Amino acid sequence: MKYTRITALAAIGVAATLSLTACDSDGSGKDSSSKSSSSSSSSSTDGGSKPEGGSGSVGSEAGNAKSGSGEGTEARANAATETGGKVTFCKTEDLAIDATDAAPDAKSGRIDITMINRGSATCSATGFAGVDIKDADNTSNPIERGHAQPRVTILEPGDAAVFNLAYDIDNTGDSLASPTDIQVTPPNETHTVSLKWPADAGEIKGAYTDVEVYPTHAPQ
């Protein structure tokens, strides 16, 4: 009987030991798996954020560069369109320039200044010419631009363009202006020509600040 009891107790002790070992093994497995998963997740998050940040920075710079390039291309395209593509502006030396009285009535003064392309190439006369009127007292008076939008004016060899000076005519005989010459600088040029003030033009009412120059256009 004693032997049988000892054997039974020994069997119970072994079973208990095996049970405790199994529990420790399960707990250890769960902890290890959890730590491994957490470490993997942390590594993935750090690794992913750095390349995205770098890539975003490079992408932004490239986008800005393309945007700037696009704006420059658009500006150049607009400028080319305004001057007729590859057509360059007319040179003063290639233009025959003349001034005539073209007053429509006794009150409205107008001087027509005609520019003829005597060169061998097509050119653009688009825009405002620079104009100064020289007075008998040898002063030079710059003329202001009138309120008008320039029109594209392309001149093939032999073609003409016209621009106008406009003012009110003084019929009192008391005008203080005594114009002798018109100094003309064609649009986008730096060389000037001097023309005689038309002898039959009406006298200027007011001062030279009341005279306006208008942009070039095709003859009408």
SSE topology sketch:
Blueprint: H1 2-82, E1 95-101, E2 108-117, E3 123-124, E4 130-135, E5 140-142, E6 144-145, E7 154-155, E8 160-168, E9 179-185, E10 193-196, E11 212-213
Parallel strand pairs: 6-11
Antiparallel strand pairs: 1-2, 2-8, 3-7, 4-5, 4-9, 8-11, 9-10
What would your notes on this structure say?
By secondary structure, this protein is α+β, with helices and mostly antiparallel strands. The chain folds into two domains: 1-82; 92-213, Immunoglobulins (Immunoglobulin-like). It contains one helix and eleven strands, in the order αβββββββββββ. It has one helix at residues 2-82; strands spanning 95-101, 108-117, 123-124, 130-135, 140-142, 144-145, 154-155, 160-168, 179-185, 193-196, 212-213. A five-stranded mixed β-sheet has the order 1-2-8-11-6, with no helix packed on it. Strands 5-4-9-10 form a four-stranded antiparallel β-sheet, with no helix packed on it. Strands 3-7 form a two-stranded antiparallel ribbon. A hairpin with a 4-residue loop joins β4 and β5. The longest helix is centred in the N-terminal third of the chain and has 81 residues, at 2-82.
Task: Provide a brief overview of the structure.
This protein is of the alpha+beta class and 220 residues long. It is 37% helix and 25% strand.
Helix content: 25-40%
Q: What is the CATH first-level class name of the largest domain?
A: Mainly Beta
Overall geometry: elongated
- The average pLDDT is 74
Percent strand equals 15-25%
CATH topology of the largest domain: Immunoglobulin-like
In angstroms, what is the radius of gyration?
Answer: 46 Å
User: How many helices?
Assistant: 1
Instruction: Report, as a whole number of angstroms, the end-to-end distance.
Output: 141 Å
Low-confidence stretches: 1-84
Number of domains: 2
For the sheet with most strands, the description reads: 5 strands, mixed
How many distinct beta strands? 11
CATH superfamily of the largest domain: Immunoglobulins
